[in-house]
TrEMBL record:
An example Gene Ontology CC term for this record: pore complex
Any one of the GO BP annotations: monoatomic ion transmembrane transport
Location of this chain's protein in the cell: Cell outer membrane
Protein name as annotated: Putative porin
Membrane topology designation: Multi-pass membrane protein
């Protein structure tokens, strides 16, 4: 009997150790609420909308301990709309992220699949639009810099270094997968972050070449690319500083597009020989109590374009204010207001204000207010 008890205990210990060495987690987030907009195409609107703040997702992620400080990791993530049950990305089961890789505690991580670029990874956490669970209404106009992760990189190989004295580096390359067209619809990016104590700094660069949005390339028609271009470049720097319950952030991004043509998901149906945006953002988060938080941001965006229809220098001012109350670590409710003023491009496709996630205003001003809730699992 004693031997049987010892054997059962050993078997239990082995099973527990094996379970501790590998894990698979089901996770997700649901965000829905009521949105009022003063002007969409000339009319006000009351709407029930999803993902006004955070992208709705469900996914699987896991790791396996391979020994010698080595781990196999994976993530499969789907985007969806709770209002109609549809997936965010047509004909795609895991349209947000899908990758597998190897992680070493000392040498870093290599992953392959559909992934975030360095702008999203490194500059996103500084912006109000992609801080933590995100804030889609607060994105820079047309998410021109992809800080709000409007698109992802297919066929990509990513390396993320371990953190050394607060510094971490990242590099990504997305293959075109085209025979005889290595440079057609490829992407690459790299970034650097420094985080120590209350200081967090970041810089990143992203380039898409010959973005024809082919189904097999680095970026596809399923992605929300507003300005498919022969060449798209995004660069930016930013940082934030934490003192007590407050976090203050500053961010600058510069987006350049050469020879754009409207794509399947473009909200601006006009081509440009050249187009660029400079986005200047200042934001603040303040924890009033452990359950109540306030956030706000001001963004000034300066643009310029030229093409067969002429040239102009559009500009946008945008102010976002938000209050959030957490019932628990999983569930919260929020209220948010966004005001945008657009000018400098009368008679062009950029004439009306255009808050992210909504339809364009018939005037240079647009106001949106939303109240909603989020829950995570």
């Amino acid at each position: 009997m004693k031997k049987k008890i010892i054997g059962a205990a050993a078997l239990f210990a082995f099973a527990a150790a094996a379970h501790a060495q590998s894990s698979v987690t089901l996770y997700g987030l649901i965000d829905t609420g009521i949105v009022y907009t003063n002007n969409q195409g000339g009319s006000s609107a009351w709407q029930v909308q999803s993902s006004m703040l955070s992208n709705e997702v469900w996914g699987l992620k896991g790791s396996e301990d391979l020994g010698s400080n080595l781990h196999a990791i994976f993530k499969l993530e789907n985007g969806f709309n709770i209002q109609n049950g549809k997936t965010t990305y047509a004909n795609t089961m895991f349209g947000r992220q899908a990758y597998v890789g190897i992680q070493h505690d000392q040498f870093g991580t290599i992953t392959l699949g559909r992934q975030y670029d360095s702008v999203v990874d490194d500059l996103g956490p500084i912006a109000l639009a992609n801080n933590g669970d995100g804030n889609n209404l607060a994105a820079h106009p047309f998410d021109n810099d992809n800080v709000d992760d409007s698109f992802y990189i297919n066929n990509s190989v990513k390396y993320v270094s371990p953190t050394y004295r607060g510094v971490q580096a990242e590099a990504l390359y997305g293959f075109s997968n085209a025979a005889g067209g290595f440079a057609d619809n490829r992407a690459y990016s790299f970034g650097l972050t420094y985080s120590i104590g209350p200081i967090n700094l970041a810089a990143a660069y992203l380039q898409l070449n010959n973005g024809s949005l082919s189904s097999s390339g680095a970026v596809s028609n399923n992605d929300f690319v507003n300005f498919p271009a022969a060449r798209q470049r995004v660069m930016g720097v930013g940082g934030n500083y934490t003192f007590g319950p407050a976090v203050v952030g500053l961010l600058w991004t510069h987006s350049l597009f050469d020879n754009t043509q409207p794509g399947a998901n473009s909200v601006i149906q006009q081509s440009f020989d050249s187009l660029h945006f400079d986005n200047y953002e200042v934001n603040v988060h303040y924890a009033v109590t452990p359950a109540i938080s306030l956030a706000g941001a001001y963004t000034f965006t300066q643009g310029a374009f030229s093409g067969s229809t002429g040239s102009a220098d559009p500009k946008w001012h945008q102010v976002t204010l938000m209050a959030d109350y957490s019932f628990s670590k999983r569930t919260d409710v929020y209220v948010e207001g966004v005001y945008q003023h657009a000018y400098g491009a009368d008679g062009t496709a950029f004439e009306g204000a255009f808050i992210n996630g909504l339809a364009q205003s018939s005037t240079g001003n647009q106001v949106a207010a939303t109240i909603g809730m989020r829950t995570r699992f």
